[in-house]
Amino acid sequence: MKTFTDTLSDFCRKAFADCGYDENLGTVTESDRPDICEFQCNGAMKGAKLYKLPPFKIASAVVEKLKDRKEFEKVEMAMPGFINLTVSASFLASYVNETHTNPELGMPKILEGKKVLIDYGGPNVAKALHIGHLRSAIIGESIKRIAAAAGAEAIGDAHLGDWGLQMGLVIMELKERHPEWRCFSEDFDPEKDEIPQISIEELNEVYPHASAKSKVDPDFSAAAHEATVLLQTGHPGYRALARTFTEVSKADIRNIYARLHVDFEYWFGESDAGEYVPELLSLLTEKGLLEDSDGAKVVQVSKDDDTAPMPPVIIKKSDGSNIYATTDLATMVQRKKLFDPDYIWYVVDKRQGLHFEQIFRCQELAGILSQGSRCEHLGFGTMNGPDGKPFKTRDGGVMQLTDLLNTAYEKALSSLDPAKFENENARRRTADKLSVASVKFADLINNRSKDYIFDFDRFLSCEGKTGAYLLYTVTRITSLLARSAEPAPDTLDSNCPLTGAERELLLSVAGVADFFVKAVTERAPNYIAEAAYKIASAFSTFYHDDRILTEEDEKKRKNRLALCALTKEKMLFLTDLLAIETVDVM
What is the model's pTM? Predict the structure, then answer.
């Protein structure tokens, strides 16, 4: 199904063609002067240059073709050649009805037949999740849902960090604390010897301690680096210990992400790409790309037209160990074999832009992926405190993600009146959903590439652009429909006249697909968040301005009930794309 503006554009394109002009001049957009008209077409301005005519002449001719169409209430030419459009109430209602009966709710399947792998989350094994992991997880989850709604086979991979220096640090710290463990013996047998159980609490304590020690103890730091190399090259005891770290961490990470309604189809780690490193090295060698550089193996990826220095990609360090570039490229080999995706989208901090530019260039030179496959770095900004700097705890440390979620939950709980809930458990469930919705919407309403200020109190407000406002709107509609003595009709009566508030609400509902297309093409959930807020705001005006349950005119009352039901349907669709759960009572 086409978006509302595309549908209007079709009418204008035909009018331009009927007048003898290029139909592509008929593109319609939402008006930037809503006080004058709802939609506009500026094609006559461009046409004036093509046909050497005054724009008003072209526009006037097109208006003559459009003014008698039943889809428009008003069509006017405004100097010097703008075409101003106001749609008819019957056409607006009919379009919204069609989106309701459409299996995809009117969303164009612009990724139909495509396979999209989204690399997001990026948690590190043996390290507690902190607020720096929030944005990748919630932005990536939303982008995955948007891609799926656009018709793609969308695959999420957490891409666990289980192969880097943090593993060597934890291994060496445990070796110092527990030298008697069999996994540290040279004759360790993974088939017979057991690995001691390690709790997540111990892991969360060991890593910060080992990291701090490595900064002041050169011998410990060197030993941790050596342990990392041994892990990557197959030390059986270290491998077995690392698997234990991974399983314990993964269980904890799953629980935290579940609170955020974030889930992954796959939980591959960097270590899973290890078996593909030899194939990567072979491919780079065959292509003549691998070079020696001070004992390391590198690939040159600079181009003649680069305006800034582009360092080579380091594939193997001089000590033989792998780095992020190695595992990221080997992971591409893995993904090609397992999925052969059309797109790989990396939802990672925008400060990693150089790294991704390097590996994308290396991939293109080596031809790791299928021809036509595209990699994109979907970078995001930082979540900052009131001082404009990355968000910190009161003592200056990095806040753990569980602490952030718990703080939001307690604030949400304190804002809910116990008298409105049937029991305390219901109130707590609502507080959990409200807190998560508030944290997520506050992030997702922003352009992902921008930094933003994190403010608990503002985000939990039921006014303004907040998750709480969205949830409040849905509860209000749910309550209204439940109190109605009659069921809401499935569709709108296209012959029923509309008030100004009804019309604005219908326009916001009709415009969802246009926001959706922007979200897909720009990989940007903020358009979905904006569409949801626009509907919520329009519904609030409608709710206050027009009588619904008390409307005496049966035709109007039924139409308003139908409008409420259709509004809720679109709100639930949009909140699901944001991975936000709604509530029935607030």
Answer: 0.94
